[in-house]
Amino acid sequence: MSTVLDNAQPVNFYRPNYHIKTPDMRSPEYVQMSTAAAITLGLVPGRMHRTACTHCLNLLVTYREGCRANCAYCGLARHREEARDYADRNFIRVDWPTVRYDEVIERVKKGGDRGQFERMCISMITHPESNGDTVTLLDKWVAGLPHIPVSILSNPTTMDKADLEDLRRRGADIFTVALDAVTPAIFERTRGKGVDSPHKYEKYWQAIEWAAEVFGPEKFGAHLICGMGETEREILEVCQKIRDMGGHNHMFAFFPERGSLMEDWPPCDRGQWRRVQLGRFLIDYAGGHVSRMGFDDQGRVVDFGCDEATLQRIIDSGKPFRTSGCPGKSDEEVSACNRPYGDSTPSDILSFPFAPKKRDLEKIRRQMQGEEVKAGI
Predict the structure, then answer these.
(1) With contact defined as beta carbons under 8 Å apart, do 228 and 200 qualify?
(2) In 104-131, which positions are buried (b, 16+ CB within 10 angstroms) versus exposed (e)?
(3) What is the pLDDT of residues 284-333, one digit of tens each?
């Protein structure tokens, strides 16, 4: 049965029963892919709420032993070893079916019947084989599909500068770092010693600096999660730092991952999220600067630092509220990586995988003002 995603049926999104559960499926012969990518390729039945497809093929290296890190908000964390099969764990809210990599390449070559990918992304994990297998996957993709650019979502903990140089030389187009936690204290609590995990804030920033040097301006970025205890000012100051280096910011709203150590945390406040989305867009694409923005004593944005007409025009475009990530072919301000419903339900969309309509923008404006807005209104 197809997974139908519409206003009447937003629940049970991305939960079709199709997983291949076998410990023998491991990279580089096999990869996991997001459900949106699997639907787009026609590998699983279903259709997505208000959008036809995803334009980025998100792939994840996979091993029976799983990720050796223990990030508190992640469905792939080491503490979930009680799960029957690593490939059965959810990641950023959705299931990731395991598929033979050669089949993925062949389906993309044929074009499929669900749309065309503008980008592919290889997501690494903390595992001894992840670095080498990422190179293998990249080489095979570049040899077979050189017209579709490749992004690397890296694991800085296992990498050094020479690894970035090698990936760039082999054809990787964009290098990203999932910093996620924007302050050292939050990083330590959620990704470091606080959860018996190997990651270090300083190493992640070092990788961002390497990326700026090796890949150059507009060819690197960082993932940042809003709503893990930081203020709006703190996350926008990090956005500004990355933009000043020549990079872009890929934003996620915190949404508690089922089975994670933070599964009981509340999701990101809607007003906070909308203001941060708008501030991030101004910094990345509209010449805004955090130094010109005003904040209250709780670090909330009260002035975006630009004239009202410009601000309203940018809000009306809807672009600040779309999923942020690596760009596609047509518009650098709109991400190819639209990650449908990776940080919210279809009934209360936080990162829009499509252009928001008038009714969506009306809801967004009310959320920015701190008004409580019911799902679907």
Answers:
(1) no
(2) bbebbeeeeebeebbbbbbbbbbbebbb
(3) 999 999 999 999 999 999 999 999 999 999 999 999 999 999 998 878 88
**pLDDT the model gives residue 94:** 58
Q: Between the CA atoms of 20, 21, 22 and 26, what dihedral angle is there, to the nearest 10 degrees? A: 70
How many domains in the chain?
Answer: 1
Lookup: tokens for 233: 């000012």
Can you give the pTM of this predicted structure? 0.89
Separation CA 304–CA 369 (nearest Å): 13
**Dist CA 299 CA 301 (whole Å):** 7
Task: Return the half-sphere exposure (C-beta side, CA atoms, 13 A cut-off) of residue 283.
Answer: 30
Q: Minimal CA–CA distance to 189: which of 230, 134, 240?
A: 230
Residues 6+ apart with CB under 8 A from 158: 124, 126, 127, 128, 130, 131
15 in a domain, yes or no? no
List the structure tokens of 344. 């919210």
- Residue 58 resides in a domain: yes
Percent of the chain beyond pLDDT 70?
Answer: 87
Q: Please give the helix or strand (H or E) that residue 341 lies within, else none.
A: none
Point out the residues of the chain with pLDDT beneath 70: 1-23, 79-94, 112-115, 372-377
At 200-244, the pLDDT tens digits run 999 999 999 999 999 999 999 999 999 999 999 999 999 999 999
Residue range(s) defining the domain that contains residue 188: 30-368
Judge whether 65 and 133 are in contact, CB under 8 Å. no
Query: Which one, of 114, 178, 124, 179, lies nearest residue 150 by Cα?
Result: 124
Contact by Cβ (8 Å): 197, 208: no
pLDDT for the residue 377: 46
For helices 161-169 and 130-144, the axis angle rounded to 10 degrees is 20
Residue 73 belongs to domain with CATH number: 3.20.20
